[in-house]
Amino acid sequence: AVVSTQSTGETYTSEVKSQITSLMTSYGEDHSRTLDNIQYDYDCCGVLNYRDWYNTTWGLKHPHQLPGSCCKSFASICRANETASRQGCAEPVSITTYTVFAIIVTFTLLASFYQVIGISLSYVLTRVIHDI
Question: What is d(CA 33, CA 27) in angstroms, rounded to the nearest whole number?
Answer without folding.
Answer: 9
